[in-house]
TrEMBL record:
Organism for this UniProt entry: Lachancea fermentati
Gene Ontology CC annotation, any one: mitochondrial inner membrane
Record domain SLS1 N-terminal: where: 134-213
Protein name, UniProt field: LAFE_0H07536g1_1
SLS1 first KH domain mapped to chain residues: 222-289
Boundaries of every SLS1 C-terminal domain copy: 392-700
UniProt domain SLS1 second KH: residue ranges: 314-360
Length: 701
């Protein structure tokens, strides 16, 4: 848990506007006083002589003093918006384009012109589709009949099209199936004596309102079918890319498509010109397939902690990535060391699949977790309730069903204050046990470093401990409902000079957090290299400030999850140890990062701007020189980029001694969106201070 401290001055001094207006008071006298009569008093003559010298002249105003304020200083600053990169990607208005979601070349796909040929040569292919079985369920047959119903704008048809529909109903369906269709969709009971031929005519004319127009060309009206042979990977990409959006777009323009998975065929049913258009468009789309060789086994091996096994079998890992990225993995020969060919529509999806592969490996060798049950009754008396807000979960966790252990609600129960009715059973023995688990040093096979700084932090996070129904998987979700109102009662951590700044200065701090994992094949160390995090402050335009960089390695990350089902939330106790691998810019601005040329090159190449109108670029690899214990010279280690988080942090104070970080965290489509409340102990960690810290936080909640 990293306490965040801004290096910028986030507090603008209050400015005041003092406007001095020159009030010119001029006495105007009646015209009669300007005569030369002796009746005019001497005092008045003197005043008039002074006025005559300036009469008819415009007096210059005194110089007004203006103080120009920016919107924030004037107290009218706008609420800062979420950067475009981290906003949920709501789909734009549906476009009637079959090429949507596909990266294509410069050539345009043009709609083919009408052909004078009636596509009689594919009639044999159409008949191959009409293979029917007597064992087909009635519901399936009824739905199939309804699919043949012409749309509202195609009920007027040529005679050939009318005869085609009539023949399909006669050849493909039995009399009982047609009667069932009429009963279900039109609530009409058919007389037993009605023949199949008359029933078909009734369906076409009375129910479907079909009309024959001899002026309509059968070329544009006749429905034909064509079978297109494709590769297995092509079918997969068409079905999975944007959830089958490409095939759905074909359906929206009037074509009916069926996919024969076992035979690697796509069956298109539409008018002649439209069938031709679909065929040409499909070929154009499939021509843009990109393919690349990927050594999956090597990547997994080089990013798995020493002495550990992968988090899941490679086959399950690949299946998970395929669903998320719409990339097809094709296994090469067993003796080929390169592993797989990956195929996708465009290079962007291939790059995403590579990134998701590193993400799914969940490289965290420094992390250790344990669970402590603190219910006020036996665990068997609680029940698992489903957790449905998957938008706050990582993409690797969204395909599972999650539950939280809770106390069953009793009808007509008397609602009591939680603080009075709940007992967490925090005895001194339990606190001793928690202290030993968090503070006692243990070997976690992490390499030791000669670092610039070494920091230990102790904190508690509110959240919900979730597990699957069989208990094989668990996770901690820090999202808490209705906590903001309680937090807003706390004072700011940094005291404000005056109350007016609460309304004129944004009290939040804004950061981006880049996460990397090491490529263990690039180091000679026999121990694990910890993951790397790069923290940047954001300016007012949501661009990372390079000089604010903090590069940290997590040497240790111990978590104890306190399950409290009698409360609306659980607790996570965290003790971590971090080291910084680069000096702050303020300490040595002239030779900053001279000992880390790889990091300097990374900052030079990166474009860390997160507004939607600007292009974001994060280099995929970063080289760091690490000062490992036992090595005389720094050892270069390559790190691979995994993900980025956006953090909007408000720092509060609890009991005049604890730092409270109220964070709004957004990680894009992969990491989800949630708020997080962290209580951080700012005192030296002892058994006594630890016990007081835990009790104080429990008392707050």
């Amino acid at each position: 848990m990293l306490p965040l401290t801004s290096s910028r001055a986030l507090r603008a001094e209050k400015a005041f506007v003092t406007l001095k207006y020159a009030h010119i008071v001029r006495n105007f006298y009646s015209r009669r006083f300007y005569s030369s009569s002796d009746d005019v008093p001497k005092e008045l003559n003197q005043d008039l002589s002074q006025l005559k010298s300036t009469r008819g002249k415009k007096l210059k105003p005194e110089n007004a003093r203006f103080v120009v304020l920016n919107p924030a200083e004037a107290g009218i600053f706008k609420k800062r918006r979420i950067p475009g990169y981290f906003k949920p990607h709501n789909r734009q208005a549906e476009r009637l384009s079959v090429l949507e979601g596909v990266e294509i070349g410069d050539k345009d796909v043009q709609l083919p012109k009408e052909s004078n040929e009636i596509l009689q040569e594919i009639e044999s292919q159409r008949r191959k589709l009409l293979v029917f079985k007597s064992s087909v369920p009635k519901e399936q047959a009824v739905n199939s009949i309804h699919d043949l119903k012409p749309s509202d704008n195609s009920r007027i048809m040529s005679s050939k099209r009318y005869e085609q529909l009539k023949g399909l109903l006669d050849m493909a369906y039995t009399l009982s199936q047609l009667k069932e269709y009429v009963r279900q969709h039109y609530d009409v009971t058919i007389n037993r004596s009605l023949s199949k031929k008359k029933l078909i005519s009734k369906i076409l004319i009375e129910l479907w309102k079909c009309e024959v127009d001899e002026t309509i060309s059968e070329t544009d009206d006749l429905i034909v079918e064509r079978i297109i042979d494709v590769e297995k990977r092509d079918i997969y990409l068409l079905l999975l890319t944007n959830n089958g959006k490409i095939l759905q777009n074909f359906a929206r323009i009037g074509a009916t498509l069926a996919v024969a998975l076992n035979e690697n065929k796509i069956i298109v049913r539409a008018t002649g010109p439209l069938v031709k258009y679909v065929e040409v468009s499909l070929r154009k789309i499939l021509d843009n397939v990109q393919r690349e060789q990927l050594p999956v086994d090597d990547i997994i091996r080089n990013h798995t902690p020493v002495g550990s096994v992968p988090i899941m079998p490679p086959e399950d890992l690949i299946s998970l990535i395929q669903k998320e990225s719409a990339v097809y993995f094709e296994k090469l020969l067993d003796d080929d060391p390169n592993g797989y060919f990956i195929t996708a529509f465009g290079g962007k999806r291939i790059r995403k699949a590579k990134n998701l592969l590193l993400w799914a490996l969940d490289y965290n060798p420094q992390s250790t977790n344990s669970i402590q049950f603190l219910g006020d009754q036996q665990m068997s008396l609680y029940k698992n309730y489903p957790f449905t807000d998957i938008s706050c979960l990582d993409w690797t966790e969204r395909d599972k069903e999650w539950f939280r252990l809770q106390k069953p609600a009793v009808k007509e129960s008397i609602v009591k204050d939680i603080k009075d009715s709940v007992n967490l059973n925090l005895t001194e023995e339990i606190i001793d046990e928690l202290y030993e688990k968090l503070v006692t040093t243990a070997d976690n096979h992490i390499a030791k470093f000669n670092a610039i700084s070494n920091t230990q932090n102790l904190g508690i996070t509110l959240g919900q401990f979730l597990n699957t129904s069989n208990g094989s998987n668990s996770t901690f979700q820090p999202k808490i409902a209705n906590i903001a109102a309680q937090l807003m009662k706390l004072p700011l951590y940094d005291d404000m000079p005056n109350l007016d700044e609460l309304y004129t200065v944004d009290q939040h701090e804004y950061y981006v957090q880049l996460k990397f994992i090491p490529d263990l094949s690039t180091t000679q160390s026999k121990r694990n290299i910890p993951p790397l995090e790069l923290w940047f402050e954001l300016d007012d335009y949501d661009t990372a400030i390079n000089s604010s960089l903090r590069s940290v390695l997590h040497l240790e990350d111990r978590n104890i999850f306190l399950r409290t089902p009698q409360l609306p939330y659980d607790y996570k106790l965290n003790a971590d140890q971090i080291v910084e691998v680069s000096q702050p810019y303020e300490e040595n601005s002239e030779s900053w990062l001279s000992d880390q040329p790889g990091l300097k090159s990374f900052l030079k190449d990166a474009q860390l701007t997160f507004q939607s109108r600007k292009k974001l670029f994060i280099p995929k690899r970063l080289e760091l020189n690490l000062h490992l214990e036992g090595c005389d010279t720094p050892q270069p280690v390559m790190f691979d980029y995994v993900k980025v988080n956006y953090r909007r942090v408000l720092k509060l104070k609890y009991m005049d001694k604890y730092l409270v970080q109220f964070s709004d965290i957004k990680g894009g489509s992969g990491s989800g969106r949630y708020t997080q409340v962290d209580f951080i102990n700012t005192e030296k960690v002892t058994r006594e201070s630890f016990g007081n810290f835990v009790k104080d936080i429990v008392r707050f909640s």
